[in-house]
Amino acid sequence: MTPNNTYYTTKSIISENCLWMVNSSRHICVTYVYFPYNGCIHYSASILKMAKGDWPTPEQIKGHEHTTTRRFNIRRANANIGKELSYKDMLRKIRREMCIGQGCVGPRKKIIRYDDDISSVECISDDGDTTNSIIELIDNISTFKHVKTLKYSCIVNESHGDAPFTIRTYYIAFKGDLNTGDAIYGACLSHCGCYSKEEYTEPKINDDSHYETAMMRMEKCPVYINIHDDYKYQLYNESTHCEDVMYSIIDKINTRVGGFMQIKGPRVFGYLD
After folding, report:
1. Is pLDDT larger for residue 130 or for residue 7?
2. What is the 3-state secondary structure (H, E, C) of 218-231?
3. 84-103 burial by CB neighbour count: b if 16+ within 10 A, else e?
4. How would residue 268 be classed by pLDDT, with cut points 50, 70 and 90?
């Protein structure tokens, strides 16, 4: 990576998407961005365990590359592995972080409560599917009592005021049927400007008001979503995590309808004021 006729500056960035490494019976898919001038790295990975000598199928490769990419976009790991490392040493340090450091994916964002408030940015979609079958499903799910809530923050490559990046925070309330995967959700977004992806402070947000908005939207103008069979068990009340459901909902939120994020749907029968 660093032969004698090349060198790094403060603007140097090294990155690869879905690089595959083989370590014994483990095939590792990793995406990373390395900043050699300060040693910081952002990465995510997924590991496919194979019988010795076997090779992943195209379907397995596609699935793990999809998982790695989603993890990097939504919940990447961050670490400092040392400045100006050679390519071989850099990959070795990433592998070490995966084994005894950050792991394959970053930690869940801890919910920090503040007294100060910041208003959410309204991104409304009122063009959702209101067919009778969807309305019936929504009415059925609305009777479920258990509601789960999520909060997640990420940095996106969108300018905010004079800042080149935006810290986007998702607040989500959802509930669903673990047998069918049918679910409804409401969401609320907060946006804050960010000048650097490497050095930034978490914005001060009034969590309670944003959760309340997400809950209200789920109750009055929910968005319908069907969770994939592989993940619908995460709708269970006692499920230890709901990471894949979160990814599915965030993917749907970011799939704009008429140019607007799908954080709430149209008002339907039974949800009118």
Report:
1. 7
2. HHHCCEEEECCCCC
3. ebeeeebbebbbebbeeebe
4. low
Helix 243-254 / helix 58-75 crossing angle, nearest 10 deg: 80
Mean pLDDT is lowest, of 20-24, 63-67, 151-155, 236-240, for 236-240
Is it the case that residue 185 has pLDDT exceeding 70? yes
Residue 126, pLDDT > 50, answer no
Q: How far apart are CA 237 and CA 142, in angstroms?
A: 15
Q: What are the strands, taking DSSP E only, across 136-208?
A: 148-156, 165-176, 182-194
At 45, is the secondary structure helix, strand, or coil? strand
Beta strands in 40-141, from DSSP E residues, in sequence order: 40-49, 77-80
What does the DSSP 8-state code read for residue 128? -
Amino acid at 196: S
Q: Do the beta carbons of residue 150 and residue 180 sit within 8 Å?
A: no
> Where does residue 251 rank: exposed (0-12), middle (13-18), buried (19+ CB within 10 A)?
middle
Residue type, 77: A
Q: What tens digit of pLDDT does each residue of 13-35 get? A: 999 999 999 988 889 999 999 99
**Contact residues for 260 (Cβ-Cβ < 8 A; gap 6+):** 123, 124, 125, 126, 127
Does residue 225 surpass a pLDDT of 90? yes
Among the listed residues 230, 212, 228, the one whose alpha carbon sits nearest the alpha carbon of residue 220: 212
56 near 26, Cβ under 8 Å? no
Distance of alpha carbon 79 from alpha carbon 62, whole angstroms: 27
State residue 215 phi and psi, 5-degree precision. Answer: -65, -45
pLDDT bucket at 138, cuts 50 / 70 / 90? confident
